[in-house]
């Protein structure tokens, strides 16, 4: 019923999994696992094709019928061959090759941006793919409007990043930008506050009014945010922690602060 995956297509998957330069040059990336692939299929991303293992074909008929209805090409390969193209230790037997989508950051703030009051997250040079992916997932859960990534961040389309988002990558607005500081300045021009997490801050995060439109800026895991970002920030904020600990993981910090914003908006601003 399904064609065998050719050597050429197999190499495409391997190259898109392993090489950022290949992903950038060809504008493609991979998503692996049933949840991620389902989210991709139900999004506005373009699916090039899906590859499934023999075991998956035997056990996931409903999923494959849905792919047939949507007109998505599905190829099969042996369980052993699937392990060779998978980037996970315990493959679920399904992987998709997907066309990348580029979002112009300033399009996110063009029309009626302040109604309703939006939340954004901006990451400067967050290097760990797991952290970037987890923050995207958190942003999705908190109904953040968009996530902005500096060009020093981990690759959004790295398989580990994609996996860490648990499918949220496919329904979040995410923009990778060349000039991070310039982009933040453009947000400020639209009346959007810049709240920057910084260990040197004097202000505790929960003392801030998060009901206004804002960008939460978080920096590199070891260095934090740059001085350029500090200079243009409206507020520097911190999370109070024990003196026995230097800092929190950046993804944990993002979750704590952004859900304080959610709490304030739900409890303190019943009209919003």
TrEMBL record:
Keywords: Methyltransferase, Transferase
Keyword Transferase appears in the UniProt entry: yes
Top enzyme class: transferase
Family matches, as Pfam families: MRM3-like_sub_bind, SpoU_methylase
EC number in record: 2.1.1.208
Keyword Methyltransferase listed: yes
One GO term of the biological process aspect: methylation
Descriptive protein name: 23S rRNA (Uridine(2479)-2'-O)-methyltransferase
Domain RNA 2-O ribose methyltransferase substrate binding: 30-104
Gene Ontology MF term list: RNA binding; RNA methyltransferase activity
Classification via InterPro entries: Alpha/beta_knot_MTases, MRM3-like_sub_bind, Ribosomal_eL30-like_sf, rRNA_Methyltransferase, rRNA_MeTrfase_TrmH, SpoU_MeTrfase, SpoU_subst-bd, tRNA_m1G_MTases_N
GO annotation, cellular component aspect: cytoplasm
Similarity comment text for this entry: Belongs to the class IV-like SAM-binding methyltransferase superfamily. RNA methyltransferase TrmH family.
Gene3D superfamilies for this protein: 3.30.1330.30, 3.40.1280.10
């Amino acid at each position: 019923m399904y064609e065998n995956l050719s050597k050429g297509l197999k190499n495409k998957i391997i190259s898109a999994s392993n090489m950022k330069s290949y992903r950038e040059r060809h504008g493609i990336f991979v998503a692996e696992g049933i949840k991620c692939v389902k989210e991709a299929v139900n999004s506005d991303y373009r699916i090039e094709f899906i590859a499934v293992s023999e075991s998956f074909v035997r056990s996931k008929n409903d999923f494959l019928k849905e792919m047939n209805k949507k007109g998505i090409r599905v190829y099969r390969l042996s369980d052993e061959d699937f392990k060779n193209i998978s980037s996970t230790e315990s493959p679920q037997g399904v992987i998709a090759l997907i066309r990348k989508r580029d979002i112009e950051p300033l399009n996110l703030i063009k029309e009626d941006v302040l109604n309703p009051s939006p939340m954004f997250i901006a990451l400067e040079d967050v290097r760990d793919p797991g952290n970037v992916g987890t923050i995207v997932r958190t942003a999705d859960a908190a109904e953040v409007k968009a996530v902005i990534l500096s060009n020093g961040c981990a690759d959004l389309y790295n398989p580990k990043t994609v996996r860490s988002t648990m499918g949220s990558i496919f329904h979040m607005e995410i923009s990778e930008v060349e000039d991070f500081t310039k982009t933040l300045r453009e947000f400020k021009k639209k009346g959007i506050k810049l709240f920057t997490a910084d260990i040197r801050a004097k202000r505790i995060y929960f003392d801030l009014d998060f009901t206004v439109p804002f960008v939460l800026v978080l920096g590199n895991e070891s260095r934090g945010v740059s001085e350029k970002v500090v200079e243009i920030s409206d507020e520097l904020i911190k999370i109070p922690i024990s003196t026995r600990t230097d800092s929190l993981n950046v993804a944990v910090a993002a979750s704590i602060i952004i859900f304080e914003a959610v709490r304030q908006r739900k409890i303190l601003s019943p009209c919003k």
